[in-house]
Amino acid sequence: MLFNSIDFAIFLPIVFIFYWFIADKKIKIQNGVLVISSFIFYGWWDWRFLGLLLFSALVDYSVGLGLMREKRNGSRKWLLAISISLNLGLLAFFKYYNFFVDNFEQAFTFFGQPFHNNALHIILPVGISFYTFQSLSYGIDVYQRKLQPTKDLVAFLAFVSFFPQLVAGPIERAAHLLPQFFRKRIFDYPMAVVGMRLILWGFFKKIVVADNCAPFVNDIFSNYDNYSGGTLILGAVLFAFQIYGDFSGYSDIAIGIARLFGFDLMRNFKYPYFSKNIAEFWQRWHISLTTWFRNYLYMPLGGNRGSRWFKIRNVFIVFLVSGFWHGAKWTFVFWGLINALFLLPSLLTTPKKKIAILQKTTFLPSPVELFKMLSTFFLVTFAWIFFRADNLKHAFAYIESIFTHPHFFEIHSAYTYKYPSWPTLFYIFILMILEWCSRDQEHIVNEFLLRKKWSSAFLRYTFYFLILLLIILNIKNEASDFIYFQF
Fold first, then answer.
1. Where does residue 407 fall: left (phi above 0), alpha (psi -120 to 50 degrees), or beta otherwise?
2. Among the four 176, 238, 293, 421, which has the fewest Cβ within 10 Å?
3. What pLDDT is stored for residue 91 in this prediction?
């Protein structure tokens, strides 16, 4: 079920009514409503995969109980190994089986040995990478004694299957989200208002920005050999904003919906395209996944401890795994490798420090800041070409065409003959201006609109109306998938 579909527009109010009015503030009943609703939400795509979700949840629930009873370190390690093996085993089978079979076939063929391809027609379950990692965090946190295991199966199922962030994140830590299912929840009007603002802004980023970028991106990437270098650069830039509007828009909607039900989800984006280097970009982009790999992979590998080459090794491992997490394609692996290479200067020369707010006291960035932001955006956009390309050959051919068909000021595509590109560029401009003005705030449509100069109810509701109007005017006949659903 898509957030931007008629089905969900009917589904959400019904769940809201059952949750707040039928459940009557009883935690166990509320949790039960969330479990049933989440299973309906996920089963809307393919009910057969509910068994997979339920199996993964029951494995980690049982492992948690076993870790609570078991005191011997050796037995505890075996229990954790069971959780990790089963979860990653299922993920590997559904997501990577055909990838490995195809690559084995190509390798054997290359060396002149016949190989019979036994690839299966495996359907990738929606969001399997997200809920697998979220469920895994529970077993690891309990093993490390950072969290007490729960005996309440319904609450645990609600945690694993919580529908706002089930299929595309944020990937929540058990220590943060699970305890919220045991707290008494009373409808909080101010919290719900913030949630509605986030939902509105998320739909703007998805429907107005991302969905308008998509046709241009698809046309340019599909016909790259027919276009000028300027058009190809525009295609890469538009994809950078497509994936940002699509993914961060989903996160905003998910966080907003969760607040309607009294839950607080972690922030997943912090205005990443204002980053001054790649290290800062990865502190601002898909924060829930970045921190997951930091806590459960990078730190166990040794983190920043040890020699410089030891740190470099750990960074490359994390980024290669991160690339592979995104999908069974060499383009994703190469994308991870490129980002690791881009990160090396920051890793070798700059000590890790907290993200600094950009020029809070002045409206415009300094020339040095502007140069750093544009340079970082260029590197990120270059890496996005590999992320978007169908395969490595496609990616390298696209990059080669930028330089072999220069004419950088000649920008057009077949799609522009039907629809001009300037409205899409204008929407991107609105997005970036509003984000820049709110760069020292957590959410644009929350704190920004409550500042003194925007405190007028008339100005706030005018803003809401204009954003809603843009959303309505840009709704397509069919709801489009979110990009990260494929992961």
1. left
2. 176
3. 86
> What are the CB-based long-range contacts (under 8 Å, 24+) for 279-284?
279/343, 279/346, 279/347, 279/350, 279/352, 280/346, 280/355, 280/376, 281/376, 281/380, 282/339, 282/343, 283/355, 284/355
Residues 6+ apart with CB under 8 A from 254: 164, 165, 168, 169, 170, 202, 265
Name the residue with tokens 């629930």.
61
d(CA 129, CA 171): 9
Is the pLDDT at 169 greater than 80? The verdict is: no
For tokens 């706030």, the residue is 460
Q: What is the pTM of this model?
A: 0.90
How many Å apart are CA 3 and CA 24, to the nearest integer? 26
Largest CA distance in the chain: 74
Per-residue pLDDT tens for 303-342? 778 777 888 888 999 999 998 888 878 899 999 999 999 9
End-to-end Cα distance, the chain = 16
